[in-house]
Write a structure and sequence with these properties.
alpha/beta; 8 helices; 162 residues; 7-stranded mixed β-sheet
Length: 162
């Protein structure tokens, strides 16, 4: 399983309130949430993101409230993967539960820049910056997590295996 896209880069402590502002939480519709994804930190994100693009951030991505709306908005916006130095624990779990691939790799997070073309191989954990010709070793997804992501989330995975 692989992801390939152009990078949107953010810093430390990107919290769930800037990923999807609370004023839009009256909806749980993924398409509607996607229209407001990242707007408080990057007003042009929704106009510039394309299916398959990748978010790269520094430390503690997804901190703040435990709402699952945040990874839903990112996934519905077309983002294929989020790479960060570290993730807030509840965001990490919510992302996997809804089928959004995320990978921790401090070296990649520090060296990849906005606009770089990046490929992520989830089987090996290899992150390749095609723009700069660099490769980084992130944590590969265990097989069971890959199955959850391929099923588009935990509920679909459970329903398919019962």
């Amino acid at each position: 399983m692989k992801a390939n896209g152009t990078v949107f880069k953010y810093g430390d402590n990107v919290d769930t309130d800037v990923i999807i502002p609370a004023r839009y939480l009256n909806s749980s519709d993924p398409a509607e949430l996607a229209q407001h994804c990242m707007e408080d930190i990057d007003k042009d994100f929704v106009n510039n993101v394309h299916k398959g693009d990748i978010i790269v951030a520094n430390k503690n991505f997804g901190c703040g409230s435990s709402r699952e709306h945040a990874p839903i908005a990112i996934k519905a916006a077309g983002v294929s993967c989020v790479i960060a130095e570290t993730f807030a624990r509840i965001f990490y779990r919510n992302a996997i539960n809804i089928g959004l691939p995320i990978i921790e790799c401090p070296e990649a997070a520090k060296n990849i820049e906005a606009g770089d073309e990046v490929e992520v191989d989830f089987d090996s954990g290899i992150i390749t910056n095609k723009t700069k010709g660099q490769a980084f070793k992130g944590q590969a997804f265990p097989e069971f997590m890959q199955k959850i992501i391929k099923a588009e989330g935990l509920i679909n995975y459970i329903n398919a295996n019962n």
